[in-house]
Amino acid sequence: MEIFAAVLTGLLGAVGAPGVVIDRLITDALRGQLVQAEQLEVRLDNTPNYQLLQGRIDRVRLAGRGIYLSSPSLRIDTIDLESDPISINPNFLQSGQLTLLEPAQAAVRIILKAEDINRALRSPLITQSFKGIKLSLSPTQPPDEFDLVNPEIMFLGNNRIRVNALLQPVNKQQPGLQIAIESSIIVVNSTRIELAASTINLQGISVPAQITNTLAQGINRLLDFTQLEKSGIYARILRLEVTDSQMQLIGFARMELPKTN
Fold first, then answer.
1. Is 146 exposed, middle or buried (0-12, 13-18, 19+ CB in 10 A)?
2. Domain edges within the chain
3. Is 114 helix (H, G, I), strand (E, B) or coil?
């Protein structure tokens, strides 16, 4: 994940610090690379400074609460990270350029709250994908354009969620229609989270799956971890749990070596 790369980069500015303050310097360096962090703590375990100077790190542990990686962004309520041993090319530490000798990997636990996902769904980046949707609500009528307005997620427990939204006609002076979707939430190929719709209602009446798929695509875009792979960061989801108050993800992230020509 992005935060894993930021932790490693933060090590660069802490090489010459005394052991008693190195954790604080790394934490401050990481905080400076995030949009916001309500609580953040980074610890290096069993790593004397001379090992860091040689490019060896036994383990990095990170605990964060209220983390914003980018803007506009999804707030991460909780993130806990614990790395495997990390090997960095020591020749590049002082120059400020991070070079891994081996891929770096860490176990990660993330907790998301419904209110934070809903806030992200209302961001301009996401709401744009819900505009101008062409749908036909009747087999005898041509398609009309609709906007999906104010999508809201509720966690129901047992890995199920409910999504409510308003289907607003674009070119007609008509009131919007309430749409409600109850879905299972699943992990696909360990790389992304998707909605598997089971119940779809429009004003209490079942509607075509096309509407559900359009809404689901916008939500799924938030939680597709393959988007990180272009920067050499691979995230895999090993466990997903949805209760009535939160969504918890457990997995691992790996930062690959840069490709050379």
1. buried
2. 2-113+246-255, 122-222
3. helix
Identity of the amino acid at 89: N
Q: What is the pLDDT of residues 34-85, one digit of tens each?
A: 778 888 888 877 666 667 667 787 888 889 999 887 665 788 999 998 989 8
Q: Is 61 in contact with 43 (CB distance < 8 Å)?
A: yes
Give the count of beta carbons closer than 10 Å to the beta carbon of residue 190. Answer: 12
pLDDT confidence of 187, banded at 50, 70, 90? very high
Report pLDDT digits (tens) over 6-32: 665 555 555 445 454 556 656 666 666
Q: In three state form, how does the secondary structure of 196-213 look?
A: EEEEEEECCEECCHHHHH
- What does the block give as tokens for 163? 């999504």
Cα–Cα distance list, 167 to 69, 152, 156, 200 (Å): 31, 13, 23, 13
| pTM listed for this prediction | 0.76
What is the Cα gyration radius of the chain? 22
- Say whether pLDDT at 249 is over 50: yes
